[in-house]
Amino acid sequence: MKKIAALLILVLSTGSILNAQGLLTVKDAVQIALENNFEIKLSQNDLRIAQENTTYGNAGMLPNVTGNFTQNNSVMNSSQVQASGEKRSLSNAKNNNMNYGVSIGWTIFDGFAMFSRYEQLKELEKQGEFELKKTILAKVSDVISTYYTIVEQQNLLNAIDSNILISNERLRTAENRFMIGKASRLEVLNVQVNLNEDESNRLRQFNVVQNLKVTLNSLMARDLSIEFDVEREVDYDDSLIYDELLQKAKQYNPDLQIIAINKRMAELEVKRVKGNRYPVIRLNTGYNFSESESSLGFVSSSNSRGLNYGVTASINIFDGFNQRRNERIAKIQLENSGLMIDQQNLLIQTAMSTAYQTYQTNLSLARLEENNADIARQNLSITMEKYKIGTISAVEFRDAQENFINAISRFNSSRLQAKLSELELKEMIGNINL
């Protein structure tokens, strides 16, 4: 009876003894993924590139300073006839010309296009921030869902382990009954088949758990062979309210925020394209040095230096109606960006509605399956006592075992589905808290 009581305690708790590898909490898993995940790092680098590109110089608002150096040398056989009729010739005549200096060019007006380009660069930086947020949300959701899937499958593995202990006790009981003539050999063989089936189920379930751990290690971008234990419970939030979620989604959904940035960039593009109708005014200045030497000619050597400056202005008068075409295209793209915002709002509302309905259903299922699991445990306990005193058959006891495993499986699955529904809703509103 003490052995039976110990087995009952093990079955009712459906717990497991922690291994020596140590416990990995869901917060630890998320933290490791945030530090190591490759997709997050790539998205962070994309944001850094956008930040580096957000400069006045990249928008064309600063002057360009250029250093110039040119040297030309020649060796030639030359002959000249001067105006006086005198002839002069020289073999291997050397001529050297050297020019160097600094030039500065500055576009001071281009129809305000430079200001539009700078605003576009700032919007691209914001877009990079929201893309990073979207990537982080997706990876955190993947980590949490994988983690709690491991919890679910590990709990099922623990239940199977408990079931194996019970099947072993059943086998010993059947053998004892056979030895004293109260059971047939067939009953012993049937119990042995049941035990072998349980062992087979455990091997398959153990493989499922190990593969999920490899997946989680991959999401955390660490050694895939690292072993760890997980928490025993799947904690889910059952207090989410639809109206609050929908309002937050319209404000903070990453996809919607990215589309809103695209619309702002389309507005700036319209301004930039319209700016091509205005003149472009550019200031030019520089300081140059020039030196030359000639073996034959009126001037054997010369040098000069000085400042040059000026202004250049240009305006598009006619370009084959391309300006008008570009403006029309930019306005159509702006209209499309507005339509995409309306479309995304509808998609979010639709997804939120269906996800929330699924969330409510899964909460109800979790409560129902918890009650069923409790009933299955009680049924198994009573059945075990009856089997020990011989009032029920081995087949009836096996049915109670299978009912218990199925109830535990459905209960674990319902809690996981409730958690996954919660994660889906929180990912839509751009805020996954632990």
TrEMBL record:
<protein>
    <submittedName>
        <fullName>TolC family protein</fullName>
    </submittedName>
</protein>
<keyword id="KW-0813">Transport</keyword>
<keyword id="KW-0998">Cell outer membrane</keyword>
<dbReference type="InterPro" id="IPR003423">
    <property type="entry name" value="OMP_efflux"/>
</dbReference>
<feature type="signal peptide">
    <location>
        <begin position="1"/>
        <end position="20"/>
    </location>
</feature>
<keyword id="KW-0472">Membrane</keyword>
<comment type="similarity">
    <text>Belongs to the outer membrane factor (OMF) (TC 1.B.17) family.</text>
</comment>
<dbReference type="InterPro" id="IPR051906">
    <property type="entry name" value="TolC-like"/>
</dbReference>
<keyword id="KW-1134">Transmembrane beta strand</keyword>
<keyword id="KW-0812">Transmembrane</keyword>
<keyword id="KW-0732">Signal</keyword>
<dbReference type="Pfam" id="PF02321">
    <property type="entry name" value="OEP"/>
</dbReference>
